[in-house]
């Protein structure tokens, strides 16, 4: 369980997040939504340790993450960032191998076990055929899968994703989020093969996509957590319209049973 308690975070001259309380359990996908500037990226940065907490607690299975070093935190939490900054001359396998950095010895050498983890991470996101390709030769969707594989190679129990589908077309958005959901909900065969359930927090803009892939939804507005609940509980016209400052309505898709959000 990743637990956020009374978290205030931001910068010395400005507090962006105010009294955030949120639980992200293993085996679940929590979608973080809200208008631009609501604090989604700030929360991801605070959880990953890039941005120090001003007050409050972030714990994982009861361990205070604010009291552990960067290396130990990197063994607990992996991040798929919004902006792709990948070394163009590296191969896919070399980039994915960077996920093993928190586990390397003083000489930076990878072991047979590291190589096994790297191969399995690429396999999980269907990258084995591209292992020797240069990053510069890949499409945007393929590069996003490389970032996900790099995060998987860290072998963390928590996965944070900051707008991972914002630059992808619909086909890649769907396939990417399906893969993310599988990471939180591995099959019995995957669990038997050593794949563990993950706690996943994903910041996302598309309110209709999250219906299919999120177990819980957390709505941020102006740095405050407005509501946490199931997609059906959170995606209500009155709640969304107030947060997004736009009249919104929903209707029930008779085929999928999920809500569709649209401007009124």
Descriptive report:
It is a single chain. The longest helix is centred in the C-terminal third of the chain and has 15 residues. This protein has 264 residues and is α/β, with parallel strands linked by helices. It has 10 helices and 12 strands. Helix content is 33%, strand content 28%. It is globular, with a radius of gyration of 19 Å. The model has no long low-confidence stretch (mean pLDDT 90). α4 crosses α5.
Question: What topology emerges from the helices and strands here?
Answer:
Blueprint: E1 2-11, E2 14-24, E3 28-33, H1 40-48, E4 53-60, E5 63-64, H2 70-74, E6 77-80, H3 92-97, H4 112-124, H5 140-153, E7 158-162, H6 170-184, H7 188-192, E8 199-203, H8 207-213, E9 216-221, E10 224-229, H9 231-234, H10 237-244, E11 248-252, E12 259-263
Parallel strand pairs: 3-8, 3-9, 6-7, 7-8
Antiparallel strand pairs: 1-2, 1-4, 4-5, 9-10, 11-12
Task: Sum up the structure in keywords.
33% helix; 6-stranded mixed sheet; 264 residues; 4-stranded antiparallel sheet
* Total number of strands: 12
| Order of helical and strand elements | EEEHEEHEHHHEHHEHEEHHEE
| Shape, per Cα inertia axes | globular
Helix/strand/pairing category:
alpha/beta
Whole-Å distance between the termini? Answer: 38 Å
Number of helices: 10
% residues in beta strands: 25-35%
Give the strand order of the largest sheet, numbering strands 1, 2, ... along the chain.
6-7-8-3-9-10
Question: Could you name the ranges where pLDDT drops below 50 across 5 or more consecutive residues?
Answer: none
Largest sheet: 6 strands, mixed
Kindly state the percentage of residues in helix: 25-40%
């Amino acid at each position: 369980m990743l637990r956020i308690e009374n978290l205030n975070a931001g910068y010395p001259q400005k507090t962006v997040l105010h009294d955030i309380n949120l639980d992200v359990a293993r085996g679940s996908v929590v979608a973080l939504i809200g208008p631009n500037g609501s604090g989604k990226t700030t929360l991801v940065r605070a959880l990953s340790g890039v941005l120090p907490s001003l007050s409050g607690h972030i714990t994982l299975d009861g361990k205070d993450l604010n009291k552990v070093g960067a290396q130990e935190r990197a063994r607990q939490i992996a991040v798929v960032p919004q902006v792709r900054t990948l070394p163009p001359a590296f191969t896919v396998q070399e980039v994915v191998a960077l996920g093993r950095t928190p586990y390397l010895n003083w000489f930076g050498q990878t072991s047979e076990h590291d190589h096994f983890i790297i191969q399995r991470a690429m396999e999980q996101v269907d990258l084995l055929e591209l292992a020797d390709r240069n990053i510069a030769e890949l499409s945007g969707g393929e590069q996003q899968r490389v970032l996900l594989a790099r995060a998987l190679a860290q072998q963390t129990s928590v996965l944070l994703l900051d707008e991972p589908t914002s630059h992808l077309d619909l086909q890649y958005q769907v396939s990417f989020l399906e893969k993310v959901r599988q990471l939180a909900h591995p099959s019995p065969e995957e669990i038997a093969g050593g794949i563990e359930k993950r706690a996943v927090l994903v910041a996302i803009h598309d309110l209709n996509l999250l219906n299919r892939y999120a177990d819980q939804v957390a709505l941020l507005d102006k740095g405050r957590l407005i509501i946490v609940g199931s997609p059906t509980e959170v995606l209500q016209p009155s709640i969304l319209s107030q947060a997004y400052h736009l009249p919104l309505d929903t209707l029930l898709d008779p085929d999928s049973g999920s809500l569709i959000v649209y401007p009124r």
